[in-house]
Write a structure and sequence with these properties.
This protein is of the alpha/beta class. It contains eleven helices and ten strands. The strands form two sheets. A six-stranded mixed β-sheet has the order 1-2-3-5-7-10, sandwiched between helices. It has a four-stranded mixed β-sheet with strand order 4-6-8-9. The two termini are 33 Å apart.
């Protein structure tokens, strides 16, 4: 893999889209490499994942227009399906994922960030779905995830107008969780990921699954889903240790994912 870099340290995986000369634009090679990295993550089972872009200018500036420009209808559908399949695999990872958005997150880049659980942004980050200015719609889930994240009205405004927004506006509408100075972004993402990694992994996975499944249904069904995942934690040694440490007023031993 050359277009996507992978590093694993202290139970945190860092994935870097690595086409800085092309502003990390997504093409078929990037999607294939990202898919392979997701296989690696599934095998390694880190406790948290950080996704970012190489260089200082761009997280991912979008899908590669030079590749898309001459596509037929059938080729465009296959390209959209391929991207959506990879993004859904990212979204479905059992451990939390954090997008560290260090610059442009446009089109497919915004859609990639939306596929992560948490988004942290550099103060220089720029977000948008500018596809209508190219005569197309978002193709990697933007019409679906953006509306679910910021609400239908704001999503329609961004997508219909194609206008971009800065990091502070992205924070104000709930598109990102926090904004940091560029030099502080990766440290903040690593600190958050490490904090997540220090918690009981089975509990974190169960919480992510309960949120993901519950948000798609009614509140009563969601509460039932939560109760099932809550109960499942009581089969783990980490739950026994965590509660014993609380009762005994001591710090729990490192969680072992057992």
């Amino acid at each position: 893999m050359t277009t996507v870099l992978y590093d694993l340290a202290d139970m945190v995986a860092t994935v870097t889209i690595n086409r800085p000369d092309a502003l990390n634009a997504l093409n078929s090679d990037v999607l294939a490499d990202l898919d392979a990295v997701l296989d690696r993550i599934r095998s390694d089972q880190p406790r948290a994942v950080i996704l970012t872009g190489a260089g200082e200018k761009s997280f991912v500036a979008g899908a590669d227009i030079s590749e898309m420009a001459s596509m037929t209808v059938r080729e465009a559908q296959r390209f959209s399906q391929a991207g959506n399949a990879v993004f859904r695999r990212l979204e479905a990872l059992p451990m939390p994922t954090i997008a560290a958005v260090n610059g442009f997150a446009l089109g497919g880049g915004c859609e990639l960030a939306l596929s992560c659980d948490i988004r942290l942004a550099s103060a220089k980050a720029v977000f948008g779905q500018p596809e209508v200015g190219l005569g197309i719609t978002p193709g990697f889930g933007g019409t679906q995830r953006l509306a679910r994240t910021v609400g239908i009205g704001l999503a329609k405004e961004m997508i219909f107008s194609g206008r971009t927004i800065d990091a502070e506006r992205a924070w104000s509408i709930g598109l990102v969780n926090a904004v940091y100075e560029p030099e502080e972004l990766m440290a903040a993402a690593t600190k958050l990921a490490s904090g997540i990694a220090s918690k009981a992994p089975a509990a974190v996975r169960a919480a992510k699954a309960a949120i993901g499944l519950g948000i798609q249904t009614d509140i009563d069904s969601g509460i039932g889903i939560e109760a099932t995942y809550f109960a499942s934690c009581f089969e783990t040694e980490d739950q026994t240790e965590g509660m014993a440490a609380f009762v005994e007023k001591r710090k729990p031993a490192p969680f072992q994912d057992k």
